[in-house]
Amino acid sequence: MTEVLSAPEAAAGVVRYSEEEAMRRALRLAATPGVPLGPNPRVGCVLLTHDGELVAEGFHRGAGTAHAEADALARAGEAARGTIALVTLEPCNHTGRTGPCAQALIAAGVDRVVYALSDPNPLAQGGAQTLRTAGIGVEGGLLEAEAREVNAGWLESIRHPASA
């Protein structure tokens, strides 16, 4: 698979995004070809400085791999401190094969989180409240309709789980 995480070309070598542009980039990352359509959601994450400079980006590559936020945070390292995270799905709040993304964002020192779609999974939801409780600014709903399109199949599986 082609690596899609390099920043777009910029005249001065610095890439800047508005929050909407960054969320659109996160949605493109979430929809990366070859990423499984299930059983997990397709998620992208972009980290920006407060003046819009791209710090890092990441995406979830499938069950058992790093979630989008953890991928972006690992790529950013210490540069993640003080950033804005734009994520296509509310950061998870549970431990499964990986740790909770809400806690990873808190530990990294992110200042603000903007997500597109609230997590409808009762096992994973609550990340936004965990972030708020930790003093991190949180906003949901940016490009929510587009995020629903990227995860239409996954959302349907959450609404109507297969009978055992």
From TrEMBL:
PROSITE patterns: CYT_DCMP_DEAMINASES_1 (PS00903), CYT_DCMP_DEAMINASES_2 (PS51747). It is an enzyme of class 3 (hydrolase). Pathway: Cofactor biosynthesis; riboflavin biosynthesis; 5-amino-6-(D-ribitylamino)uracil from GTP: step 2/4. It comes from Sinomonas flava. Residues 17-139 form the CMP/dCMP-type deaminase domain. Keywords: Metal-binding, Zinc. The keyword Metal-binding applies. This is diaminohydroxyphosphoribosylaminopyrimidine deaminase. Transmembrane segments: none annotated. It holds the Pfam family dCMP_cyt_deam_1. InterPro entries: APOBEC/CMP_deaminase_Zn-bd, CMP_dCMP_dom, Cytidine_deaminase-like, Eubact_RibD. The lineage of its organism: Bacteria, Bacillati, Actinomycetota, Actinomycetes, Micrococcales. Its EC number is 3.5.4.26.
